[in-house]
Amino acid sequence: MRSPALLAVRAAAGTLAAAALLHTCWYRPAEPGPALAFGLLIALGELARRELPAPAAAPAVDTRRPAPLASAGALAYALLGQNAGQPTHHGVLQVVAVVVAATLAGVVPHLARGRGPALDHLAGRVLTVTFAALCFQPLYDSGHLAGPLGRGPLLVPFLLLVLGLTALCGAVLAALATAARTGLPYGRALREELRALAGIGPAVYAAGAVLAVGVAGAGLWALPVLCVPLLLTQLSFHRIAAVRATRHETIGSLARATEIAGYTRPGHARRVAALSREVGRELGLPERELTVLEYAALMHDIGQLSLVDPVPGGATAGLPAGERRRIAALGGEVARRTGVPRRVAVVVERQAEPYRDQPRAARIVRAANAYEDLVGGARHPAGSLAALEQLRLGTGHEYQPEVVEALARVLRRGGRGPREGAGVGASGPV
To answer: What does the alpha-carbon distance between residue 6 and residue 426 come to, in Å, rounded to a whole number?
Structure first.
């Protein structure tokens, strides 16, 4: 479901892109050399974008792969005032036209393979680059940057200020897509996007400022030299993303072991993991804790492999407390031997304890697992309302009340985790 605000953002980006392209074609580009150089940089940056396959067994894997080289080139062109000491006059609309044309040229091969960036991502790039150009180009063209602010030590802080505002603009726009996709309240979606800026975002925005300053002083030959550090950063990012995807696949395979052995219902671990992550987001957990939560939820039943006879339906919520703790302890030991982070093993190990003795992630996994056990079996044919009521009855000792209420809010928005056999993907720098 798309919100009216998100549809308005798409319409504004499309209208702006069309107007900029028509204006630039009609009046012809000013300074074709810089336009061509930055256009090639943006297109090559998009071509270098790698789309890693999202693991089918791991919920909420971020399938959004930024193109840092293209993003930095687009921002640098928006902030370009001089070329080798000579003033430029390309203006805001030409900035938008070059960025749109170069981005489309770079994403066509990805679209042909069915792996292109999301439409909301492209709309966000158009609007954020427009914002950066509007903050810089009119001031430069009017001569207000001809004084101390436009050169010397004050120029870099000014550019960083513009880029900081641009980053905030991008987070505001991306939060609209996140809220529409996940059903989160907009304020919480905005906080998530602001946290996400702490990743590769600072390198992208800083590189945009460095490219603009370098070309202003040394000319277009500065572009290939100054792009080398960012290119190495992009390669490192892809390597880290590949390692994370492989870890997701490994943990997902371990989660399927209990299903293959007949100890749990098909898709149970994926549903618990997806629901746990949604509840964690509802409670405001940062991304790092959400990852720990997701891994622990995928592996929460691995201790059942020690049982001689499977629990009917794999529903451990109805077992005696001592038996649940024994299974959880064995699961924690298995998790440690697989090489997952220690925090994941601790959550798996302590998921059966009273909630006051548990870490926050273990409280969420326990409640999500109990809910899935109740609605998945024959105990509560009335469905989710009866299951939630059963969980509320256990909030004095078994389940944390705040977690149960967060679970209820997630379910009211329609969050239930993936259907059996389905994977879950997420969406989202410029």
So the answer is: 17
